[in-house]
Every structure is written in structure tokens, then in C-alpha cells.
Design brief:
Layout lengths: L1 E7 L5 H11 L9 E10 L10 E9 L4 E7 L2 H29 L3 H10 L12 E4 L2 E4 L18 H11 L3 E5 L6 E6 L5 E5 L6
Helix pairs in contact: 1-2
Amino acid sequence: MEVVVKSRHCEVSDRFRSHVAEKLSRLEKHDHHIVRVDVEVEQERNPRQHDRAVRVELTAVSRGPVIRAEAAATDKMAALDLALDKMTSQMRRAADRRVRERQQRVPVGQAMAALSDLEAPADDTEVEFERQVGPITVTGDGPLVVREKSHSAAPMTLDQALYEMELVGHDFYLFVDKESERPSVVYRRHAYDYGVISLDLEGR
């Protein structure tokens, strides 16, 4: 992914350019088809606009639609973080839409092949089918497991879990609470609040 940094009415240091490239590299996990991200940094000339002294605009060019996000803050770093958060949210929503569309769309050839393999029962007896979904044997309609993952992790505090969640850019984070030793999930709520769900294990 190419990162192009431009500036207007201000100077941009090599250190800031490196910081921008490192920050924007996280976008690739939300959209693997990104080709280039244009970053425009503009200094506000009006001294009365001190709270919006710097504006950063991001433009992500990929195989899909172009995504833009911009934000203003007192300095370049803060404006970049705000614009990056906006672009990340847009990419997450776009990725969720693509997943839902793929799940709802069934190829015609696959559907016809499935129908040809089915034999109509001679009477009105209902036929139930079994299939294996990961470790679960499902009879008839059942849960759709899109992906299964397991991770090794050491117990951590709530503060550490919040930091890890922000680091990976997810809306939730699964961890083992260091104090209670219970499986827990910290998740993002509206207005920058956080929630925590813990499991009480029976027999303990």
C-alpha cells in the first residue's frame, strides 16, 4: 500500500510521514484491496480557529469505491487519529455489508446442483439432514459458523484488555480477568463508553 503525504500552508517532517505510514498500515486488515492512501495536511491560517488549527483529509483508493475521511484538531497527530478513526469505521461498515451480501447470494449453479442431488420423498414424511459445522453436528437448519479461531493468552487486567482492544481496532476483546480468573469480554458502547461481560463458571 502506497502512502502519499501532501501539505498546504505548513511543513511536514519525515518523522510525521513515518508515523502516518505506520498508522495507516492498520487499514489493510479492513480492506485488503487498498492500493494507495492520499493524506493532505492543511494548516488553518485564521488564528481564531485555534481549536481546529490543523485539518487532515484521508483518501483511500482501492478496487472498490473511494473512501474519504477528514478531521480537524489542535495539532497534526490529533487530527490524523480522528480522521483515521472515521475511515476505519467506514471500512468496517463496508466489510460488514459485503459479508451479508455474500451470505445472501447463492450461485445459480450451486443451487441447481444441490436440487438435483435431492430426491423427493414418496410420501409427506419430513426428511432431516445432518451436517458437521466445526465441532457441532447440526440436524436440519442450524447455526452458520463462518470462521473458527482459538488463541493462547495470559490472564490480564481490565486496563490491559482495553489497551489491546484499541490496539487491534476491534469493538470487543475476549480475555481472562487476572483478578477473578473468569473469562470476560470488554466491548465498546456508544459515546466512548465501555462494558464488561464475565462468565461465572459452575462448580467453582
